[in-house]
Amino acid sequence: MARARFVRVSARKARLVLDQIRGKAVAEALATLEYTPRAAARLVEKVLRSAVANAEHNYQVRDLDDLRVVQAYADGGPVLKRVQPRAMGRAFSIKHRTSHLTIGVSDETNGAIAAPTPPPARPSTPPPAREERPAAPARRTTARRGSARGGDKPAARAARKPKEKK
After folding, report:
1. In degrees rounded to 5, what are phi and psi of residue 84?
2. Are 54 and 64 spatial neighbours (Cβ–Cβ below 8 Å)?
3. Which of 79, 116, 114, 115 is nearest to 100 (CA)?
4. Packing angle between helix 39-58 and helix 11-21, nearest 10 degrees?
5. What's the pLDDT tens digit per position in 69-108?
6. 0.70 cut: is pTM over it?
7. Which of 57, 63, 73, 140 has the fewest CB atoms within 10 Å, counting from its CB?
8. Cα(107)–Cα(127) distance, rounded to whole angstroms?
9. pLDDT tens readout for residues 128-150
10. In whole angstroms, what is the distance from residue 21 CA to residue 73 CA?
């Protein structure tokens, strides 16, 4: 396992690269990273090479062809907050995000690092029964005209009509 902390790349951008190599053989992952046109790929490649060196030195793994990437994730690190001056005395904030990259490699025969196991499946239970509520009274669907108090009445409308001249 190898970890690079406080790396100046956002975790979201690093995850795009890490998703490409998770589960692959180390040689295939290194080849993928070499031709990935992202700045995070160089940083991930450095961590992957460190994880391989750790497996070789700490766990005496001799056959490096058996190593696979079993863990690859990026956690968010602290955010460096800066201020950018703008016109008319305004100030915009700039966030320089950092991340912590973690890569774990394992050979299946030696099992230096076990692959993460998914959580156990919960037994399926039917949803609770819903109580029946009495039906709500029907609403008026006709559009009201006039004022907010309920609209004009025909008698009020007739009273407002101007009288014809004789």
Report:
1. -110, 115
2. no
3. 79
4. 60
5. 999 999 999 999 999 999 999 999 999 999 999 999 998 7
6. no
7. 140
8. 43
9. 777 777 777 777 666 655 555 55
10. 10
